[in-house]
Amino acid sequence: MKAAHVLWTALLLYGFLATAAAQDKPLLTDDQARDVAGSAVRSEYPEPCYSTYRDERLENLVLSVRKNPIVGNQINNSVYFYRVASDVCDYVLEEGGKPVLHTQATMDCCEYGTVAIDRVTGKSFWFGGNRKRADVFKEFAHDEQLTPDSSKPILFTALYQELVWGSTKESDIQSLGQLRDLVQSNFRSAYSPYERDTEWERMFKMWWRQFRSQTTNVKLETTYETATNGTLVRGYCFSGFELTIPRSDPPPKGTAKLLQWALLVKPDGTVEEQPLKVIYSHR
After folding, report:
1. Beta-bridge partner residues of 88
2. 51 touches 65 (CB < 8 A)
3. Rounded CA gap, 118 and 142, in Å?
4. Do residues 104 and 88 lie in contact, with contact meaning Cβ atoms separated by under 8 Å?
5. Are the C-beta atoms of 156 and 144 separated by less than 8 Å?
6. What is the pLDDT of residues 148-173, one digit of tens each?
């Protein structure tokens, strides 16, 4: 019994020391976090270097939905976000026993998504590549203790949309003007690639006129409904014609649609996507 007590005490002491050591461990610097972000992408897309663009707006958004926005007497800014791209960057290789500076330039090539870096643990969360972004978000929200900001989880939903869907511009339509701009831009690229003519105008006006006549009761706004296991968030998004680079000649592929999306946001930070509902669809 005495030996077991000594062992238990030793384990408790070890755990206390390990926790203290973790708390005293310095946070990753900006440069170190950029290296971790590059390593995450390199595992799937091996490049000598990447361009990384820090997104402090996302960092502030995360702070707004954390359980512990303050640690001790400091703001808990333990997560950095980087958009990783293949652009122009410098790297060093050893040649003939000497370090030689090289420059990589790949213009208009590749966007690899967003990588979040936990500055305490060094763990990366890559919202891109072959990963399912919804699964990455679930792990990220759990590890970073992110929860809905209220019964109307506006900020939490915006964070999910940006990290999982990639943008809030097309996935959160709030007005007819915003929708009209999206549809108009899509029709221009689909029917008159590189603005060779104005054929797109006729097709767009026809689509818009029919849309307005058939959807008079649609209110383009995000709604929040209390459910038994969370909050059901509904909003609208636009799905246009499939565009290629370089643009191909008409007819374009796909169909221009106004869709309604729905997310079940649970109190523990998990999100369940509901099936999309077609509000209007026409070529």
Report:
1. 105
2. no
3. 12
4. yes
5. no
6. 998 899 999 999 999 999 876 667 89
